[in-house]
């Protein structure tokens, strides 16, 4: 589909065959991306992995939190609990400390809302993207609001960097104990050589990309997973049976077990099919005129790949709107992330607890609506009850 959005020609790809042409056959012509005007706020024009033991530790803490709620008979806000786990994992990896111990605290709530607000503004239709001459005017106030959100996050990271610089000065330690210390050492070493600088502004923006990409997407996907499993209890039972057979009752799920859990892997892949984290992917830009399926795509055109539509194409999938982990082969676009935290978190939650919906909600009446943003999230938070498996 071809759209003329102001001065910007936009091509929307909604079939697997056309997406293959853009992303594989002609990938060298579409390697570049269009940059939304909102991203230019604070000159921000992105993810790193943690070690295995640390991921295991954070999942154990997640299970402890859920266990406490189970004993108290309280419902769990799945997305909040998962967001806390992902955020603390990144904080520990990057800074060797946990800033956000309580997912009900004002700090974690504000951080989460700020990250979502950034993604919402970046994903919103912006006249300045379609009429570049309006960039300085910012007619919808999107860049102004995004600048405020960016500065909130930058202040958070800036304070941490200041603390690390002060600690370095007081102790004289230059060891690479975590990612932030490594980046600071690189920054100082490059400055001393008068080389191309990795300055603190660059570090702050890098941290924003890593935290934005590694927290909300993971927690949202886990929330969709639990929601779909609550709608399909027979799928949940089959997954729990696989976990019991492979892991054994009372044993902890480890990353090394994932390769032996094909049904759990199929569930995660099916979640990505039905609920892709970025439904239109990130926009690409044509480097020159190119012909695809008889249509000429002009140089500079914006390309949007509609993964959501492709994943629900009835010519490819039988009953495409149904959650069916056994429906066939497909690949997960976030494979490095999914193999680790998503499988580990979902497998651990299913192996340790039985899950059910809150009173008054049935699999047929559970709200599965999503809300607008650059990422796909549930419109209403999922709250679920669980019983400890004995």
Structure description:
The protein is α+β, with helices and mostly antiparallel strands. The protein has a domain of 209 residues: Orthogonal Bundle (Cytochrome p450), CATH 1.10.630. The chain is built from 13 helices and eleven strands. Strands 1-2-7-4 form a four-stranded mixed β-sheet. Helix 2 packs antiparallel against helix 3, helix 6 packs across helix 8 and helix 9 crosses helix 13. The longest helix is centred in the middle third of the chain and has 30 residues.
Entry keywords:
monooxygenase activity, 11 strands, 10% strand, Cyt_P450, three-stranded antiparallel sheet, 51% helix, Cytochrome p450, alpha+beta, globular, 13 helices, 390 residues, four-stranded mixed sheet
